[in-house]
Amino acid sequence: MEACKEREAMDIEVRIRGLMMDPATSMPIVVLKDVASETVMPIWVGIFEANAIAIEIEKIAVPRPMTHDLARNLMRHMNLRLERVVISELKDDTFFAMLWMRQGDEPIVIDARPSDAIALALRADCPIFVAEQVMQAAKLNTSGPPEGPTGEQLRGWLEGLNDEDLGRYKM
Predict the structure, then answer these.
(1) How far apart (Å, rounded) are the C-alpha atoms in residues 168 and 171?
(2) Spatial contact of 115 and 29, defined as CB atoms under 8 Å apart
(3) pLDDT exceeding 70 applies to what percent of the chain?
(4) CA torsion angle 165 61 112 23 (round to 10)
């Protein structure tokens, strides 16, 4: 249990700052912002995952449950509570996430894609975190998206966006 508390102390809580299309690559980006600073971290996601996130952000009613709604409903019926989502690793320009859940007194941790983890977190109304080392690595990562701007150029661009700019690139 002590290791879990230590881990939590090293995680940075983030909120979704925006969901937009990368104007250079036309790939969806989820922009995460540190709640305690102006630091932002972009994550490129697939179009279907971006759509699932956008539907929940905009509270669009869908006629039938989508995949993430189904997962949330299954968790509820199995008495699983999603407590937190942690983007836990960045390896070879790929982000990894973990779902921290609880069933009764038993903690359960499951590997997930960050886009799926974020979509579930929105539906379960639970906090999203980024491991401190991932946030640092993402700051230092200068590769950016394939054939796109460098990470530093993108970070400067993202930090300079206002709400009107984010609306212009809305999904």
Answers:
(1) 9
(2) no
(3) 76
(4) -20
39, 102, 111 from 147: Cα distances, Å: 23, 41, 29
Neighbours of 169 (CB within 10 A): 16
Number of domains in the chain: 1
Residue-wise pLDDT for 63-99, tens only, equals 999 999 999 999 999 999 999 999 999 999 899 999 9
Is the sign of the CA dihedral 115, 120, 125, 126 positive or negative? Answer: negative
What amino acid is encoded at 10 in this protein? Answer: M
Beta bridge partners of 97: 87, 112
CA atoms within 13 A on the CB side of 20: 20
Q: What's at 22, amino acid-wise?
A: D
pLDDT at 143 over 60: no
CATH number at residue 81: 3.10.690.10
What's the length of the chain? Answer: 171
Domain of 79?
A: 2-168
Percent of the chain residues past pLDDT 90, beyond the cut: 68
